[in-house]
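Quick question, first post here. What does this chain look like in 3D?
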Amino acid sequence: MTTQEPMPGTRPDILPDPVPLMGCPYKADPYPLYERMREAGPVHRVLFPSGVQAWLVTGYDAAHAALNDDRLGKNHDRGNDRWRARASIMPEPQHSQLQVHLLHQDPPKHTRMRRFVTDAFTPRRIDSLRPRFQELADALIDALPKSGPADLVTGFAAHFPFQVLAEVIGLPQELAARFDRDWGKVVQPVGPTDPGRPLYEARLHGLQRYIADVVAHKREHGGDDLLSRLVVARDRRELSQEELESMIFQLLVAGQEPVTHQITTALIALFRNPDQLAHLRDEPDLRPRAVEELLRYDSAFELTTWRFFDKDSDLHGTEVPAGDSVIVSLCAANRDPRRFPDPDVLDFDRSPNPHLAFGHGIHFCPGAALARAELQIALGALLTRLPGLHLAIKAEDIEWIPAVLGRGTNSLPVGYDRRL
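> Answer (accepted):
Ran it through. Tokens below.
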């Protein structure tokens, strides 16, 4: 049974309580379920594969309000025992060492920590680095077969965002070459009794050792880059050791894996809309507007991370107990017909387009300008240099990753006429 089918003994228009957010059909296309949820109301109790329950916000107006609601905090200390029993899957001491980054902080601590990273991701600095990003994209395409087939995840999308990130934050080439993409999977829940738990913990320890090596290298070979500035801030006691390691953890994992998945979701959307693909290929000036619409249409950040009330509170007419997790569905908000006419249509002429793919409020993604540049360059390079680019499998055969909060695929087989 899938979440898009009625539960036994229920009417088709009545949603189960909680609504299960799991299963291959849901991950392949969550939008029919989100439509039902929006029509039924702005807040629903949901169930994740780990067994944790949460309150999901679905409509655009409700999502926008929740993202700016200062009653909702991000610090995990706010979570109650019910949430902590199933959601705090990272063991100690790693949880305390790696989970105190920006996504899990509230003001004034969040404000203090965020100021260390914003200068590295300003639109002006990102624009100055675009020629280098283009070089990296072209080099990866040069390494693809001269004609299809090819896998655009292993051949391009899995590498381009990390190479770009390394340039932006000052990760030296020798250390960048050692990074294992599998380490990024430590943010995917694996419960204590799961058979995959030993592999999960091995990845976690490997990533921690890598972060320690990065810190040691920057302490010895510092420069004018973000990683060096973070290490200096730690040495000046402006950051704790846990804050330093956690911020590097966030940069390495959240700074590149979502862009990998956004490249794949954008390409899949284009393959399903060949007229728009041709339009984008033939009109390079369209790229900024097209990227905004592709972000709205199918965002790699499907759901936000946890938020909590510190006391029992009303959330759009629903009473939410203190410490229960509240999550905002960015994808559901971005397909709300009350905000976006014909929301299921991919329309590069859509204006205005106030999507929430990067969140909103104080937790708006600090790397938004970088992600936009990466997507514009990646899509432009692939469509220009791989004429005839098309999906090499049936759309229904795409294997979507079973991640709780994000959308993407670990492989994307494509064909193309030739490599220019």
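The longest strand covers residues 43-47.
The chain has one domain: 19-415.
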